[in-house]
Structure formats: structure tokens, C-alpha cells
Amino acid sequence: MSIVNNVSGEALQVLMKRVQEIFLADEIPWVIGYSGGKDSTAVLQLVWYSLAELSTDERNKKQVHVISTDTLVEQPIVALSVNHSLDVMKAAAIEQDMPIQPHRLTPKADDSFWVNLIGKGYPAPRQTFRWCTSRLKIEPSNRFIMNMTKTHGEAIVVLGTRKAESARRAANMRRYEEMRTRDWLSPNGSLPNSWVFTPIEEWSNDEVWMYLMQNKNPWGRSNKDLLNMYRGASQDNECPLVLDTATPSCGNSRFGCWVCTMVSADKSMEAMIQNDEEKVWMAPLLDLRNEIGVLDEWGRLDDKHRRDFRRMNGTIKLNHRDGKTIHGPYTKQWREHFLRRLLQVEKEIRITGPEEVKNLSLITDDELREIRRIWIKEKHAFDDLLPVIYEEIRNEKYPYVNDLEPGPFGKAEWDMLAELCAGNWVYLELQSSMLDIEQHTKAITSRRSVVDDLERAIKKCYYDNAEDAVLFETGRQKLANTQLSLEEEMEEGLEDQ
After folding, report:
1. Owning domain of residue 39
2. Residues 90, 92, 93, 95: what is their CA dihedral angle, to the nearest 10 degrees?
3. In what order do the strands lie in the sheet containing 155-158?
4. Per residue in 415-455, pLDDT tens?
5. For a tag site, which of 41, 94, 367, 436 has the least CB within 10 Å?
6. Total of domains in the chain
């Protein structure tokens, strides 16, 4: 379809009529996904204008919830824009008597990016270990929708997904179209008792922009500012409104987490810094992102030297290609380094950035508290360095120092133990874990769990280093293969008899 056919005149009226009919057909609440990007803005704007044409009684028959998931590591420019948009949206909905209620969703503290990377030591996300998306984006949204279905029985999820985004997206949307039992509503593949409505599924990138430029945003956000944000995130600083397939579009600009390592480079942030001197303050963010996502000469994440040679639970797994250990979480040293760097970047931005980021927080207090709990309670790091790093960078006392009951040991004892272990961090981990486990379980009547915990600590620290682990694991596998061969020979001999 041409741009004119889809976003103007009679075709647009037909689409708005469809929105109204689906809205009025039942009492099922709507949940609109809103990211602040062009597609979600267009679909929310379309719904807003469609409902505005209904009578007050008709449009207030049920609630429309607008959910925006803040991963807490969104690009600051985008996060500020979305949060402002939600504020003005709420005010406009009240003023215009619209049944629209915005919600800012965030991941739970123990699911956040920094708690997983700095607290637990999860390595930067990659194709083989993409731990971030479900925790940061999917879970908060799913939790909200599930609460809707529990309360109301069903929910209709309205999304700005379009077939023109990619061949894979188009194929997936067509697959769910075939399962439709109601007109225009596809079953939700991940959540029961919910339906998916995609009003602009047939629109192209350029049709989205044409619609946004031709129709004023009804809740007060400037669509021209949105266009400028996309233009600023394009490498060539161009974002034209195109009328034919030969003209490039800025529709492929992508905004996401500023720490994302799923791509080799954050081109949108690079372009923002390059195209606008007022956004140079974001350069420290890009530097930290590139430090976390350091690449080798082949463009692959190169962080083995920062990570434990054992898995999170202490087990050893060998790579079948080179026979070396598959590395696990970041070591204590690197987790502390990333916390220090994060707070340093935050401090630098607050000093050099514009007024709107003078109070920017790159990590929340709840995340810091959870990281400290993990370091002390789960990692047995009783030197308790988080408050020290916090006070060193922020030049103020750590406010939650009394969250955790102090143990018998502290940094002085840790330093003494480290000296006795002569720099061997595996020995240090073993000794500190065993001491900490024993000291924190003195009051327990049953000692069985203590013995189990001590046994796990010993098993985890069984190897001196990565080379020792490879030798042991290789020998164990050879022995297992030899025993298997002997058993097979015995079975063949019995069969022959």
C-alpha cells in the first residue's frame, strides 16, 4: 500500500473504526506497550484519537493501561524523554477525560543489570548467554499483564509491531494470524488469557513517520522532537520523510540499553555524540560500555581474563574445540572495578552534563543494597568493600551500612588472610568461605546444613588454577571413556557366548 492509502483519508478512518469496534466489543482491559519510539508512539496516538471520537460513556467503559518498561540502563536521553512523556500523558488523560493510565515498570532489584553483572558476576550478555532481555524487559511487562488477567480474566495487549520491521517478524506475525479466533486479535504466544492487537501491522517505516508528522501528538509530546532524536541517532545525521523506496529512511535507528553488548558497537550513541556537541557528556557512558564489551581482533567479546575459570557453582566444563575451561562469572576484583567505574562515570556526568542530568543515577540504592548483600552473604567477601567504594567516589557516607548485621570479621582480617594466601585468590576464597560459613552458623542447632555448605565450598576450590582444572577434568574424562570401553567389550563378550 502507498503511504497515502495507509495513513491518510478513508483508509485511516477505516483503521480507526476498527480500533473503536474492538474496544467496544467487550469489557476486557487494554494494555498498550509504549517504549517512546516511533512505532509505539504511532499506535498509542492512533488509539487515543480513535477513543476520543467515542462518547464519554463509551470510552470510559474500561481502562487502557500504557506500560513503559524502564530497564534502568536505558540511554539517558531516551529515558528522560519517555519519563517526561509519561508525566504529560497522565495529565492530558485526566484533562481530556480519557481512560488512559500510564505505568513505568522496572525490573526487580535482583533481576537488574548491575545486580547480575556486578553483584553475581554474570559476564556481559552475548549471543550464547543472553541473560538480560527476559529479566530487564519481558518479566516486568509479563508480570503486569498477568496481574491484569488474574483480576479481569483476560487482557488485550496492543503493540506497535509491524511486518515491515524484518522478514522474521513478518513470518512470526503471520503464524499467529493463522491462529486467530477473533478478528484482528492474535493469541499471545507467551501469556495465556491474553490477546495481541497490532493496528499498524501493515505500515512501513515511512508511513509511520508520515502519520506522526501529519497528526499532532494528543498528549502533548512533540513528534518533531522524536524525529530529531532519531535523526541524531543516525550515522549520517539524516532522517528524511521519504516517498519512494530509493530514498533512505531513519527507520532503522535503534534505541536500547546503553550497556548493550549484544552488538559490537552502539552506533546510535556514537551518532548522538558525533552529531550534537550538547550530547558529548554521554561519552563516558560509551567508554564504559566499550570497556565492558571489550572485543578481540575478530570482533568477539574478549573477557576471559576477567572471569573465574569455574562456573558459578564451581563446576568445570571444557570447551570441546580447544579443551580449555569455559569461564564463568567475573572475579571479585573485576566486580569491584566495574562498580567503581560506574560510580565514577555517574559522578563525571553529574559534573559535566546539562542541568537535566545533574541528579542522574546510573544505579539505584536498591541495587547497591542487593549487590552488597550478595557480596557478603553469598560470595563470603567479609571485607565489605561496597561502602568503601561508595564513599570514595561519592564523597559521602554509605547510608545503608546497618542493613546487614556485622560479622566477627572485617577488612583487617580479610587483608591478613589475603597476605597468608600469598596472592592465590582460590585459596583466599576457600579460607574466607569456610571461616564465614562457620561464624554465621554458630547459633544453628543442627549442624548438618553447615557441613553441606563447607563441603560445597571445598569442592568449589578443589583446583589450584585453570591449568590444574583442565588436567583433572581431562583425566577424569579419559578414565570414564576407558571404563565405558571396558564395559562395552564385556557386553560384546557375553553376547558372543
Report:
1. 3-225
2. 120
3. 100-105, 64-69, 30-33, 155-158, 194-197, 185-187
4. 999 999 988 989 999 999 999 988 877 655 556 678 888 88
5. 94
6. 1
